[in-house]
Amino acid sequence: MITVVHTGPLDVNTCIVELGGSSVFIVDPANSSFSGDENKLVQYLNGRKLDVVAIVLTHGHFDHVAGISVLKKAFPSAKILIHSKDAKYIGKDSKIAQGELLSCGGFSEFLPYVLSLAEADDFMEDGKNLSDYVKCSGLEDWVIYNTPGHTKGSVCLYNEKQKILISGDTVFYHSCGRTDFPDGSDEEMKESLAFLKEKIPGETLVYPGHGYAGFEYSKNF
Fold first, then answer.
1. Dihedral (C-alpha) 145, 8, 4, 23: value to the nearest 10 degrees?
2. Do the Cβ atoms of 86 and 154 come closer than 8 Å?
């Protein structure tokens, strides 16, 4: 089961993915004091007595990572996972990459909220599954696909058994992610979309980083 909680200044679809019992992993926490929802996820999770085993980032853009430090403080054993090609967007040296991105997007006032973010605990690789990084039942069903285009280190998470794709900012409903930001590539996005179209069955439910979530993949074309 996936619960979508909207967080951050750009209304990110933060996914809370249940693994059985009290264990969950979180995808793209964007909560911050800037948007007035810094504690929204922690309150939700604590209220339901849920335990976070992993914080998974589909890419490193500011609007998808702002909440990782708050979650890591509340759930210290949770592993922060990101693709190595987007690692520059978090951790102590994030100022340069996030500053460039925010400047391009005309949102430089958000920079203080993504400085000194928590460091990654490990780096996801294409074709592996989440259980390669965190030992928890249920994570073995989630496969990682590196889908560059929006960023070099963008990833999608696919669960074949449950027929679910968590697509970050690669696939939206009847659209795809922007390629005009730093590290974006129109050509790589076309290749990633072609790969997913071949790989993902049409009845798969898609949960993107923004907008309408839970649509059938076949309805996207």
1. 70
2. yes
Residue 44: pLDDT band by 50, 70, 90 thresholds? very high
Neighbouring C-beta atoms of residue 211, cutoff 10 Å: 12
Query: Tens digits of per-residue pLDDT, 127-185?
Result: 999 999 999 999 999 999 999 999 999 999 999 999 999 999 999 999 999 999 999 99
Nearest residue to 139 (alpha-carbon basis) of 155, 161, 118? 161
Record the tokens describing residue 161, joined without a space. Answer: 């058994």
Q: Are 61 and 107 in contact (CB under 8 A)?
A: no
